[in-house]
């Protein structure tokens, strides 16, 4: 068993109704907060609810509720400039990955002068590096998918170059993350499915990649089990709080796994799809995940057999090879069950776009590509894109 390092500086507060504790959990971080969210959550009253709990503890809050899916680096820069004189002590991100990653970006930009895109990690390198001056971050999760509540990642899109990539920095681990499954009850079926498949992709990719270790594997496998067992119910019956709770925990576990063991080919191919065509992140993962598995199960049959087992594959006493192959079928069956089978052409992507997508996947997303157990070439990535066109 190889050695490894495990580190998770985030305090995770999990449970129904725990959002009510945000005041007591955040008060030590300062007296003035910036709440980052989107219009939908503001209309639902969640922003006001959080603001009220903070106010009870003497924390004044201002808010920004204009976050959009696939958050833009340019909007982060503009918002930071507008908030520069507000004396903000910490940032509260309410929502799914988009709001949380936007909040992380603001936590950097409010204390650092460079364009936020300079902090993006490309192939293990960035132009600028966020320091410990980064503002503390508190997270209230409302979807079960990205795991951003427990990662040092902040993914964003640069509309000027049509690229979607992420910051990797230990200073953007949230200080406190509230995972309250009750907040996911209003998430519609399609978004429930896409965020759930994102969590599954995180779990599978972290399990098979080169950087996996004892702790990350444990988290990955449990997340795979929980998604397989509970996502169909959460999609079909969104008010099922037990299924929602188990999905919320699965997403958090998968986030813990990728914070230690990274993602692989699926994210390398998926980010360019979102960056160039504004496709939802979960939808991009749903296209790439089964394709990746079809091209990878033979690389480590023992691991893919364990994935199949975690997904409930039951074929009597199959050989390791047969169980590994069955893991691909299990993922495809789950996608069918939650009605999330799609192709790139469904989003207006054409054959002529594949060269650019493949250059992005093997270029600025090379870090994920290098984490895969096999290093796919540019031409091989193009061929996989053609398969999902």
Low-confidence stretches: none
Residues in β-strands, percent: 5-15%
Residue share in helix: 40-55%
Order of helices and strands: EHEHHEHEHEEEEHHHHHHHHHH
Structural Rg: 20 Å
Tell me the span between the first and last alpha carbons.
40 Å
Q: Which shape, going by the Cα principal axes?
A: globular
Structural class by helix and strand composition: alpha/beta
Q: What is the oligomer described by this structure?
A: single chain
Largest sheet: 6 strands, parallel
Q: Taking all residues together, what is the mean pLDDT?
A: 95
Structure, described:
With 389 residues, the chain is of the alpha/beta class. It is built from 15 helices and eight strands. The strands form two sheets. A six-stranded parallel β-sheet has the order 1-8-5-4-2-3, with helices on both faces. Strands 6-7 form a two-stranded antiparallel ribbon. A hairpin with a 4-residue loop joins strand 6 and strand 7 (163-168). Helix 7 packs antiparallel against helix 8, helix 11 (301-310) packs across helix 12 (320-337) and helix 13 crosses helix 15 (378-387). It starts with 10 loop residues before the first strand and ends with a helix. The mean pLDDT is 95.
Keywords for this entry:
48% helix; alpha/beta; 8 strands; two-stranded antiparallel ribbon
Brief digest:
By secondary structure, this protein is α/β, with parallel strands linked by helices.
